[in-house]
Each structure stands twice: as structure tokens, then as C-alpha cells.
Amino acid sequence: MKEAAKINLIIDKNLKNKNYQIFIIRTQKFKENKKYIQEIAATIIDAYNLCKKRDNKSISWFAVISEKVIAVSQGRSFLIKDIKPRLMARILYRFVRKNPFGIGLRSPWTMELAIREAGISKIIYASVLSAITRPFGIKGL
What pTM does this model have? Predict the structure, then answer.
């Protein structure tokens, strides 16, 4: 490992007669335009080898990667102070319904980012379609 990943066991549970161990692997900070796929793969392989050394059993495993790492690496993570919502973003975000799973597009800043990525024509098209279908109880179209 170049820069040793810190591996912490956070959960050791038995669910449905299967033992699960959940580890957090802390890495160095990822920066934009970095070759994040190779970096993440190398870190996971190093972490796996360390875990295998600790417990020499044959194990099944999978890795979950924070979407924040990917967003930062792709240059798709922004500070709110750097986003200046335009008029359409400040108008349209008010019509987005609240979602229990997160903020989604219900903020002028996230709406502005959606407009930048998808384009204003697609956002307006989706807004009109949603306005037409809402009276029929169809949500999320």
C-alpha cells in the first residue's frame, strides 16, 4: 500500500445464520481528474489482502463506494458558494415535491446543477410533463 489505508471493523453481526463483517476503509483524499478507478481498485485489493492475512479463511465479500468519491473524482462536486442559481432554477425548484430520501432537486442549487447538466429544454419538458400528469395522480414522470 502506498499510503496505508486505515481499516476499521465497525460491525460484526450474525444475520440469518450468516456472519457479516463491515469495514470502513479510509483512504487519501481523491481529487478531480485523478484515475480514481485504478486507485479505488488498488485500495480494495490492499484492504482485502490485509483482511485475508488477519483471517485466513475463504471469504465472500463485496465493496461499496461512496458516491461522493466518484463525484469529486469526476469533477461533479461543488461547494454551494460556487453555484449561482439562475432565475429558472429559482422558480422551478419550488415545484419539486419533498422526498424522504434526500433533497433531490428541491433546492435552487441542485436545480441549477441539473439545468447545467441536462439543459434547460429537457428540464422544462420534464416540468411540463409533470404538471400535466400531476392532476391524474401520476408522480415522478
Answer: 0.62
